[in-house]
């Protein structure tokens, strides 16, 4: 399995904070998200978005890996949580990701899918904390 690396630049993203501690981030030409700390019904925290980005990237990577292997898994859903480290510096020390599929392949194929998804997920490969991934069920 050869993974092709394409050079890509991300951003720039504009972040602004005003009265009320709500941060507005322009993430695409017509997309703006609100971030706050602590989280509210209207806005999540920066950590919420980082963990969500990890889940989205793992789901996309898993989907691409399944396509490469010519395995029809149906919908890919990833539930991700993070645990704060108990020492300094302040950070998320570990992440747990559970993958659910409409159609579950065999054990060996699942292991290979996880291996390929983790290898290609830019977000998980950019984090310092360990990312543990497993299949649901």
Question: How would you briefly describe this protein structure?
Answer:
This protein has helices at residues 46-68, 107-120, 122-126, and strands at residues 14-17, 23-28, 31-35, 76-84, 92-101, 130-135.
Q: How is the topology of this model organized?
A:
Elements: E1 14-17, E2 23-28, E3 31-35, H1 46-68, E4 76-84, E5 92-101, H2 107-120, H3 122-126, E6 130-135
Parallel strand pairs: 5-6
Antiparallel strand pairs: 1-2, 2-3, 4-5
Helix pairs in contact: 1-2
Helix and strand pattern: EEEHEEHHE
* Coarse morphology: globular
Q: Count of helices?
A: 3
Beta content comes to: 25-35%
Indicate how many domains the architecture comprises: 2
Report Rg: 17 Å
Report, as a whole number of angstroms, the end-to-end distance: 28 Å
CATH fold assignment of the largest domain: GMP Synthetase, Chain A, domain 3
| Structural class determined from secondary elements | alpha+beta
Largest sheet: 3 strands, antiparallel
| Major β-sheet strand ordering | 1-2-3
Low-confidence stretches: none
**What's the total count of β strands?**
6
What is the top-level CATH class of the largest domain? Alpha Beta
């Amino acid at each position: 399995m050869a993974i092709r690396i394409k050079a890509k630049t991300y951003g720039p993203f504009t972040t602004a904070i005003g009265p009320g501690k709500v941060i507005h981030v322009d993430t695409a030409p017509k997309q703006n998200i609100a971030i706050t700390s602590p989280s509210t019904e209207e806005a999540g925290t920066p950590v919420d978005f980082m963990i969500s980005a990890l889940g989205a990237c793992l789901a996309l990577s898993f989907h691409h890996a399944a396509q490469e292997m010519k395995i029809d898994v149906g919908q890919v859903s990833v539930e991700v949580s993070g645990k704060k480290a108990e020492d300094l510096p302040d950070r998320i020390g570990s992440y747990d990701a559970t993958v659910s599929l409409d159609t579950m392949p065999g054990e060996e194929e699942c292991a290979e899918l996880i291996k390929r998804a983790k290898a290609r997920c830019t977000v998980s490969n950019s984090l310092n904390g360990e990312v543990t991934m497993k299949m649901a069920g």
